[in-house]
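Need residues for this backbone.
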């Protein structure tokens, strides 16, 4: 790690920066409609608390986005970040067909990031991701400002879909 680089702050997207409330209905039916769930993401309203924290943190840190969204959602995700004036930064997404729990996939990325940079903080709404990151020694801010559904929590952990 070089002393020249600013530390990074890692931000989740869904229910940290973007409200998924309007599209959670697609996960509450059987079978879950993942295509519709992700197709509705461009209409996510921003979450003021998360967006403000991200912008403030960008004054001291480079921003990295870490989401469980699949790679096929990259263009919509980049467009959403730009449309809402969020700081530029790399976006780490779940590989298509990678259905491991978010607590595993995100911790893998955090560990890769810390090889080259100080990871100042992870901001995420998923309690299991936050727990795993804290156990691994990362500083965590738990994004508790969005309403989430049990279906989404179940999907994050058991189906590895977001």
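Answer:
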């Amino acid at each position: 790690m070089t002393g020249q680089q600013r530390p990074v702050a890692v931000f989740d997207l869904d229910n940290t920066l973007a409200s998924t409330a309007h599209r959670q209905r697609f996960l509450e039916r059987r079978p879950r409609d993942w295509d519709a769930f992700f197709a509705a993401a461009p209409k996510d309203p921003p979450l003021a608390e998360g967006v403000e924290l991200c912008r403030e943190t960008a004054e001291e840190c480079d921003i990295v986005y870490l989401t469980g969204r699949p790679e096929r959602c990259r263009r919509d995700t980049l467009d959403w970040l730009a449309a809402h004036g969020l700081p530029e930064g790399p976006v780490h997404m779940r590989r298509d067909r990678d259905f491991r729990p978010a607590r595993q996939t995100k911790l893998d990325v955090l560990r890769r990031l810390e090889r080259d940079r100080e990871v100042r903080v992870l901001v995420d709404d998923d309690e299991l991701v936050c727990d795993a990151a804290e156990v691994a020694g990362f500083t965590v801010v738990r994004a508790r400002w969005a309403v989430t559904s049990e279906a989404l929590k179940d999907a994050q952990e058991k189906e590895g879909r977001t």
